[in-house]
Write a structure and sequence with these properties.
- With 230 residues, this protein is mostly helical.
- It has two domains: 119 residues, Orthogonal Bundle (Arc Repressor Mutant, subunit A), CATH 1.10.10.10; 86 residues, DnaD domain-like (Arc Repressor Mutant, subunit A, Orthogonal Bundle).
- It has a three-stranded antiparallel β-sheet with strand order 1-3-2.
- Helix 2 crosses helix 5, helix 7 runs parallel beside helix 9 and helix 9 crosses helix 10.
Length: 230
């Protein structure tokens, strides 16, 4: 048996719907299906854009999944069982003679997305670029930064974080969290004031040339527009 060192003091979390535990999990008796299903929940939670799906190629190239599941045959088996059970939706994309299996969670939103893709209302012009493994991503999102450096999210704070993520460049947000931690001021109020100040006065963070002047309208018209100096 491979041992596990235990959970660390600061962790990221992937939410699962309650119905997964009450209705789905008791029915799954195949380890490949269970591992594949859980892994897809994890991956899709971290994806951005619409619609959210994962391809067979992405799964086959996912080191963490393949280490745990074994080989391509086990992956196909797990996917087939999850699709047959109704956990996942399967769509085959055919572009320029190449086919690729796409997998969606069987949610109302994703059922609508699949229907729109099949009808041509949503066009997937090319196979998606394979995304990096989540553990290799260099820049955590604002919710992860909050959970790792401040504490548990509340609905009110989550809404403020969404707005801040829309308003400010990601490097600004990460730098603001770092500054707050360095000064031992672990609160969203303190961090939001840092961001407001940078939006107002300018800052040397982020991409070259990306500052207040380059994105002025975004800040003026946003929630924190009242703090931006015209």
């Amino acid at each position: 048996m491979n041992s596990f060192a235990g959970f660390g003091p600061r962790m990221r979390f992937t939410p699962l719907p309650n119905i997964f535990f009450s209705q789905l999990l008791p029915k799954i008796d195949d380890i490949a299906e269970l591992k594949t299903t859980l892994h897809i929940f994890w991956i899709l939670y971290q994806k951005k854009g619409y619609p959210k799906f994962i391809t067979y190629g992405e799964l086959l190239g996912d080191k963490a999944l393949m280490t745990g599941i074994g080989d391509g045959e086990a992956l196909r088996h797990g996917l087939e069982r999850a699709v047959s059970r109704g956990t996942l939706l399967h769509l085959v994309l055919d572009r320029e003679g190449k086919t690729e299996g796409l997998y969606f969670l069987n949610t109302e939103a994703d059922r609508e997305a699949v229907a729109k893709i099949e009808s041509g209302e949503i066009s997937l012009r090319a196979l998606p670029r394979r995304e990096p493994y989540p553990e290799a991503q260099e820049q955590p999102n604002i919710f992860t930064l909050y959970e790792e450096n401040i504490g548990m999210l509340t609905p009110m704070i989550a809404e403020e974080l969404k707005e801040a993520e829309r308003l400010y460049p990601a490097p600004w947000i990460e730098s603001a969290f770092k500054e707050a931690v360095t000064r031992n001021k672990r609160s969203w109020r303190y961090i939001s004031r840092i961001l407001e100040r940078w939006a107002s006065e300018g800052v040397e963070h982020g991409e070259p040339g990306r500052g207040l002047k380059a994105d002025r309208d975004k800040y003026i018209k946003g929630r924190y527009g009242h703090v931006v100096r015209r």
